[in-house]
């Protein structure tokens, strides 16, 4: 994918998110801004938390609980 489309699109920043990840309201902006401000930044990582739901009801789902 990157070898095929990268040379054509020439992106400044490429963001990969795991399937099912729900970024916060400003997460993508802050990630992009970190790359934009400092050209020496080559990667970034963050925290992923399970959305437990009201009273932890989503934790009954084994995929969320794990």
From TrEMBL:
Listed InterPro entries: Chitin_synth
Family matches, as Pfam families: Chitin_synth_1 (PF01644)
Top-level EC class: transferase
GO cellular component, one term: cell septum
Top-level taxon in the UniProt lineage: Eukaryota
Keyword Transferase: yes
Swiss-Prot/TrEMBL keywords: Cell membrane, Cell wall biogenesis/degradation, Glycosyltransferase, Membrane, Transferase, Transmembrane
Catalytic reactions of this protein: [(1->4)-N-acetyl-beta-D-glucosaminyl](n) + UDP-N-acetyl-alpha-D-glucosamine = [(1->4)-N-acetyl-beta-D-glucosaminyl](n+1) + UDP + H(+)
Entry GO MF terms: chitin synthase activity
GO biological process, one term: chitin biosynthetic process
Membrane topology: Multi-pass membrane protein
Cell compartments where the protein resides: Cell membrane
EC number: 2.4.1.16
Major subcellular site: membrane
Family from the record: Belongs to the chitin synthase family.
Function: Polymerizes chitin, a structural polymer of the cell wall and septum, by transferring the sugar moiety of UDP-GlcNAc to the non-reducing end of the growing chitin polymer.
PANTHER family for the chain: CHITIN SYNTHASE, CHITIN SYNTHASE 1
Protein name: Chitin synthase
Lineage: Eukaryota, Fungi, Fungi incertae sedis, Mucoromycota, Mucoromycotina
């Amino acid at each position: 994918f990157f070898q095929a489309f990268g040379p054509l699109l020439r992106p400044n920043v490429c963001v990969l998110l795991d399937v099912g990840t729900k970024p916060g309201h400003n997460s993508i902006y802050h990630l992009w801004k970190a790359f934009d401000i400092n050209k020496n930044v080559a990667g970034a990582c963050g925290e992923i938390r399970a959305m437990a739901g009201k009273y932890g009801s989503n934790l009954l789902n084994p995929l969320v609980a794990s």
